[in-house]
Amino acid sequence: MKFLSAIILLTVAVAMADRDEDAWNFYKFQFGKSHSPQEDAIRKQNFLARDRVIEKHNRENKEWQMAHNKFSDMSDEEKQSILGAKPTVRRERSVASDSHPVMDRQLPASIDYRTDKCMQPVKDQGNCGSCWAFATIVPIEFNACKKNGTAIAFSEQMLVDCDTYDGGCNGGMYTNAWKYISEKGGVMKSSAYAYTSGTTGLAGTSCKYSSTAVAAKVTAFGWTMPYPNATVSMNYLQSDGPLPSAIKILSSIYNYASGVYSDPACIVADEYDVDHAIVIVGYGTTTATSTTPATPYWIVRNSWGTGWGQSGYFLIKRGVNMCNIESWTAYVRVA
């Protein structure tokens, strides 16, 4: 009997090992991963640990789902290196505006700028903590298009290389970048200053700014007030377009695939506990079912490429300041 049990256990172990090897090889093929033999063993362990987490989460959580992506074989240190939001002193304004949304008007049930003709395709920050630069540029692109009628992509690389208020690939903040742009005289077109950053990039060391390629100027910017307040942010979203914000990134979000993201560990008490810049581009509410209630959500644009999340976007629970998303919303106006 003991011998039979040992045979069964050995058979199961072999089957699991074969399954793990097949899953690892398919993952590498699917995401174009290629490693040296020594690195492959480490990456495989990272992947298998993540595979167990994803399987367990999807079995137990019905509100949102996980899936494998480019992050699945990365170490925690690698994933943290691309987080670049560096909060500034709260409510500092460099360019003030006397014009604010009317807060008592009727808001639409939903807003979704993802398919708006003025929304540029999702971009990928790569191995650089430059999320702040992408969050800076998105609302400028959108609002300049709304004002001038022409969709133009603007340069994140100009900010990574030139903005001395921020730290290039070492992080920064969109309000600092808007201050820099307003003082510099405008932001360049991406066609004249394309994004190239990888693991390097230190502001001020390789700036190629040229005023001849400037296509938009910042005229005003500020924080949404009061905060955190979902209704206030919804009003600004309607009147001023996409709103950058900063959030706390937990390990759970790297493999987000669908649904409305939430994590009890992401209800944080410290408003400065944020490390990644994103852009809110809409809001809505899920339809209630027999097993799940209706859930208010934000539609959020990320800068991790179209292969992440829902073609580069994700939904996150609205109205509870999930991951501090409602504490750091800001708006910008352009000419």
UniProtKB/TrEMBL annotation:
Sorted keywords for this record are: Disulfide bond, Hydrolase, Protease, Signal, Thiol protease, Zymogen
Instruction: Cite the Pfam families for this sequence.
Output: Inhibitor_I29, Peptidase_C1
Give GO terms: molecular function aspect only. Answer: cysteine-type peptidase activity
Output the SUPFAM superfamilies linked to this UniProt entry.
Cysteine proteinases
InterPro entries listed in its UniProt record: Papain-like_cys_pep_sf, Pept_asp_AS, Pept_cys_AS, Pept_his_AS, Peptidase_C1A, Peptidase_C1A_C, Peptidase_C1A_papain-like, Prot_inhib_I29
Q: Say yes or no: keyword Protease present.
A: yes
Q: Which residues form the signal peptide?
A: 1-17
The answer to whether keyword Disulfide bond applies is yes
Superkingdom of this entry's organism?
A: Eukaryota
Q: What biological-process terms (Gene Ontology) are attached?
A: proteolysis
Domain (Peptidase C1A papain C-terminal) spans: 107-333
Task: Give the Cathepsin propeptide inhibitor domain ranges.
Answer: 24-79
**What does the similarity note say?**
Belongs to the peptidase C1 family.
* PANTHER family in UniProt: CYSTEINE PROTEASE FAMILY C1-RELATED
What is the name of the protein in this document?
Uncharacterized protein
